Amino acid sequence: MTKNSKDFCEGDGLKLHNHLASDLGARGLPASTVVICESVEAFVDDHLKALLLNAQMLREGHLEQYGKFDFRNFFAENKDDLLIRLTSQLERSDPRELMSFDTEDLTIVSIEDPSSVSLLKAYELEKDKLFLTFAIVAEVTLEFFVFKSDYYSMPEHVNFEIQDFDWNDHYIWASKAVLLPLKLSIELTTDTPNKVESFDVELRPFYGWCWNCGAPIASDAAETCDQCHANLLTPRRPIGPQREEPLTARGESQ
Q1: CA-CA distances (angstroms) from residue 152 to 132, 164, 244?
Q2: Count of CB atoms situated within 10 Å of the CB of 217
Q3: pTM surpassing 0.70?
Q4: Is 168 helix (H, G, I), strand (E, B) or coil?
Q5: Which of 43, 100, 103, 203 lies in disulfide reach of 37, CB 3.0 to 4.6 Å?
C-alpha cells in the first residue's frame, strides 16, 4: 500500500512500474502478483468487500452491538500520528492544491479536535472486527514561507499571519489556520475492547473555503455554502482581519 506513485508506479498510478514488474518476472512471478493500493479504504473496497463474512453495510445505529467506539477519544490520543501522516501527504502534493498562492516548505504544525464527524462506511470484516470510515472537518495550522516579491503583488483578500517578515532577505515566515475536510479509515477490533489495529487519514477533495464562515467547499459547482448558506458567487469580504503591510526600513508602509 503506497501513495508514492512517482517511484513505484507507471504514470496513471495504478500499474506497477516496468522495472519492478521485470523483477517479478525474473523470479517467475506474474506482474499481477503485486497490486497497487493507495489507502486502507481502497484496499477494502477493491479486494475485501467481496470476501466479507457478513457482507451487508452496517448502519450507524447498529454499531452498538459491537460496543461503543469513542471516535473523539481516539482522535485526541492519536493527534501526533495524524499530524505526521498529513504532513507526509503534503510533501508529495503541489502546495497550490491547498493554498491559492505560491508557498515553500508547507507543513501542518497543529490539528484541533474535529468540528464535525460523520460515519461514511461501516463494514463487518469478520467476527469482532470492523472497518469504519469517517468524514471529519478539523482546523489545522499551516506554516510556510512566502517569497517577498510575491507578497507585494498579492490581492488584498489573500490572508495569513506573518510570523517573521524578515526571516531572511528573500522570504517571509507565515502561518494560516484553516478548516480541512479529512477522511479517516479505521480497522477496529471490538473484543479487546475497541482496539484500533490500523488507521489511515487523507485529505478529501475540496475547492477553497467559504468567504463568510471559512468552511471548505465540497464542489467546484457550488453556488452557496452548505454551512452558512452564503452566496459563493459574490463574496463580500475576506475571512479574518485584513493583513497589515509591514514597514520598510524608512518606516513607510509598502
Answers
A1: 46, 15, 11
A2: 19
A3: no
A4: coil
A5: 43
- Per residue in 160-213, pLDDT (tens digit) is 999 999 999 999 999 999 999 999 998 888 777 668 888 989 888 888 888 888
- Beta-bridge mates of residue 185: 133, 200
Residue 48 placed within a domain:
no
Q: What is the pLDDT of residues 152-161, one digit of tens each?
A: 888 877 889 9
**Which of 225, 199, 188 has the alpha carbon at shortest distance from 82?**
199
Whole-number Cα distances in Å, 27 to 30, 32, 94: 9, 13, 37
Identity of residue 86: L
Indicate if 98 and 7 belong to the same structural domain.
no
Q: Are 1 and 126 members of one domain?
A: no
The DSSP bridge pattern shows strands 104-111 and 195-203 to be unpaired
The separation between the first and the last C-alpha atoms of the chain, rounded to the nearest angstrom, is 50
Q: How many domains does the chain have?
A: 2
Please check whether residue 254 is in contact with residue 248, taking contact to mean a CB–CB distance below 8 angstroms.
Answer: yes
Q: How far is it, in rounded angstroms, from Cα 107 to Cα 141?
A: 9
CA dihedral (138, 141, 144, 150) in degrees, to 10, reads 80
